[in-house]
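**Sequence, structure tokens**
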Amino acid sequence: MRIITSIFTLFFLLPGFAIAVDPTTDESVETTIRRLDLAEASAVLTADFDAVGRLWAQDMIVNNPFNQVVKASSGRVRTGAVTYSSFTRNIESVQIHDNTAIVMGNEVVVPSGKSIGAGTTIHRRYTNIWMKRDGQWLLTARHANVICSER
């Protein structure tokens, strides 16, 4: 009877236990997504359009703080109509669902140059949707909105 119990434990319970306590690839995927999300903010801040081109999906769509839904390729960031002297992104949540990652948090930006609101500090909420396509994580959709100050 002891042998049967041992065999049962080895073949049925231990593999399930190992899966339950093993840090799965989700943790490394989350780390990758967090790194990419911060790299994307840095690329926008520095107007590094080569990096933006590597991080954004060609069909990326943005629901921007100007109350517009636009293709990112022709949006304000890509055309240079919006520039920043400061861009801080705070990731609050990352959820991984197969080949899709949802990132939510807040951002503090200071537009510069001829951008609307240049010189003012703007607080926003954001959601970024990353999708793994052909083995590469790409920012595919984004929503950012300004947090209205209390009056």
About this structure: The domain at 25-146 is CATH 3.10.450.50 (Nuclear Transport Factor 2; Chain: A,). Helices lie at 2-21, 25-45, 49-55, 76-79. The longest helix spans residues 25-45. The chain has a mean pLDDT of 85.
